[in-house]
Amino acid sequence: MKKLFLASKRDASVLRRHPWIFSGAVSRMDGVPEAGETVEVHSASGQWLARAAYSPALQIRARVWTIDPDEAVDAAFFARRIHAALKFRESLGVWSKDACRLVHGEADGLPALVVDRYGAFLSCQFLSAGTERWKKVIVDELSKLPGIEGIYERSDAEARRREGMELADGVLWGDEPPEELAIHENGLTMRVNLPGGHKTGYYLDQRENRLSIDDVAEGAEVLDCCCYSGAFGLRAAKAGAKSVLFLDAAEAAIDLARANAALNGLAGDTRLVFQTGDMFSVLRKFRDMRRTFDVIVLDPPKFAATRGQLPRAAKGYKDINLLACKLLRPNGTLLTFSCSAAMTPEFFRTIVAEALTDAGRTARVVRSFAQAPDHPQALNFPEGHYLTGLQLAISN
After folding, report:
1. Residue 17's domain is classified under what CATH number?
2. What single DSSP character describes residue 35?
3. Residue 100: active-site member
4. For the chain, what is the domain count?
5. Which residue out of 226, 227, 325, 339 is catalytically annotated?
6. Residue 156 is part of a domain; what is its CATH number?
7. Based on CB atoms within 10 Å of each CB, which residue in 37, 175, 262, 295 is the most buried?
8. What percent of the chain has pLDDT over 70?
9. Buried b (16+ CB within 10 A) or exposed e, 73-112
10. The domain containing residue 48 runs over which residues?
11. Residue 233 and residue 77: Cα distance in Å, rounded?
């Protein structure tokens, strides 16, 4: 097996069990590994440290599979990791439901692999050369899980291009998912589009967070920004909201939100209004009209994929939070989120606090949010904390 040697004093992160090895930490290679090939990782002094998947095209030069010298990276390895992930979801009580995340990359010991369950179908993302190399083995193991009828690939994320790989999607095993696939989430029925929806088809990571709107929606006028499937707004409507405005830049998202309203017995409900438009422009228009709301949800797409994009992203997050603060009535509620992994919870709080100050508002934190527990966070991999949010009670 080919070997990767780290530069002097660059082994600390591996010893702390961080799964990424950056190109700058690599001193030399013994042999020329192919993309995704398993290599033996050694310290500068020659001490064996790990087995990892090699990525020649990326700054993350290798992703650690195992730090156990006796553990081979083979079909049995992937079977063990997948079943450990399944056992964890069973302990959370989510595998018995019809939608959950089964594998969450590095936190489940399978870097750059994402597997979500939607009913009898699995939706997967293979986002590195290592997972791509072992795709057939992984799919074969996933196909053995009880109740699974089909496995669909949604490896259409830009992370693959950075690895020098083509985007990929389509059926990997079994049946093709139906167009009308639906899941159930805390009393709501939601349509999932595996081939064409965002990410793997749906945002499972906000499942528990969406429950928070139940406490503040009764009798409220609600604005659901970047609504996508409409899950926040539909919960508000079910909880007795006076009105709900669903806003998204994509017409397809608005169509999906309408369809989900119908699935939940809200077709033709005059309280619900669906609007296509750019969030920044619409919020400014509402500000100029002096239009106000009791509850606003800000759940925008990722503004920063890397730390280098944070300054520009910070401006975007501040702008939308500033506008939302100006649109909220006294005693209103702001539910605001960031799904940018480069955005820390501390920095996000700072940005929102500055927006409140500039808007001349004060607020109390009612809840802090993170991703659902089936999207686990490993303490040795802080980059895995990507979803952060706040529920704020506006006091003036």
Report:
1. 2.30.130.10
2. T
3. no
4. 3
5. 339
6. 3.30.750.80
7. 295
8. 100
9. beeebbbebbeebbebbeeeebbebbbbbbbbbbbbbbbb
10. 3-66
11. 43
